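SEQUENCE AND FOLD
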Amino acid sequence: MRDGFELVHLHRMIEQLVEEHLAEKGINLRLVKILECLFHHPDGMMTPADLSEDVNLSRSAMTSALDSLEKLGYATRSPHPVD
């Protein structure tokens, strides 16, 4: 039981350190998850709705996250060719 507690504690410590490092760059783990989805997508492009589903965010939260990524220069938006 103690090993499990220590593992959870270690995970939280690592997560906090990662968040602090990312914060220096103006980004957080949620935004990294979105970038990871885009990186692993075959053409690097996804609709906001698909991203919302993949990272389990509401559409309004995804819009805000994409605004942040675009403002920071990590992502760009383009119109869907079929819309």
